[in-house]
Specification:
With 202 residues, the chain is of the alpha/beta class. The protein has helices spanning 2-11, 14-22, 25-28, 52-59, 71-80, 119-132, 159-168, 184-189, and strands at 42-46, 63-67, 86-89, 105-110, 133-145, 171-180, 192-200.
């Protein structure tokens, strides 16, 4: 994972940050947006990047903990999105040592993160994520299929294995949706995604 973080730090130029932040959260989350409560909730956005999604959530009145381990992206996010209802944290999967234990978030999101973890790290991460979700809270994650960008290694992702581990941690599958990438560059490389949403039932 350290190599992946260094890869993101190396490409965190002004152009990269502008391109990342310029993607539309409405388009990215279109397959699961109906699962996000309309009432004000607490959200943990893990791998928050430049805070693009966190800002979108914050504008809807939610309270966000934006967790981002790459300093260059985190600092850009703090500058670009200074909303009072976004708090930033330097922390990293799979352990999330700095994230508060038993914090009971109503929604936890991992957008374009899971592919950077090995299967062994994923088996550690899901139980940890489950401890952060409030009863009846939701976990939303996108799983990338296809090649990664240079310097940012990706690993094959099995939706079935992810669902199996999540189920063992008390997370019930709400939705599984395959989707094309919203980025033209990814489309050209044949990248696709599987969106998974879970509800914590115990």
């Amino acid at each position: 994972m350290q190599n992946v973080l260094e890869g993101y730090a190396a490409v965190a130029t002004a152009d990269f940050i502008a391109a990342y932040d310029g993607l539309s959260p409405e388009s990215i989350y279109e397959h699961v947006v109906d699962l996000i409560p309309n009432r004000s909730i607490r959200i943990a956005d893990i791998g928050a990047g430049t805070g693009r999604d966190a800002a979108w959530f914050a504008a809807k009145g939610h309270d966000i903990l934006a967790i981002e381990p790459v300093r260059e992206l985190r600092e850009a996010g703090q500058t670009l999105h200074p909303a009072a209802n976004i708090k930033w944290l330097d922390d990293c999967l799979p352990y999330l040592h700095a994230a508060p234990i038993g914090s009971s978030f109503d929604l936890v999101t991992l957008c374009a993160v899971w592919q950077h973890l090995t299967d062994a790290d994923r088996a550690i991460a899901i139980p940890r994520l489950a401890t952060m979700i409030a009863p009846s809270g939701i976990l939303i994650m996108s799983l990338r299929h296809g090649p990664g960008a240079k310097g940012r290694r990706v690993f094959p992702v099995s939706p079935d294995m992810t669902i199996e581990i999540a189920h063992a941690c008390g997370l019930r599958l709400l939705r599984r949706q395959d989707a094309n990438s919203v980025q033209k560059g990814n489309q050209a490389m044949g990248v696709s995604w599987t969106w998974l949403a879970f509800e914590k039932v115990c």
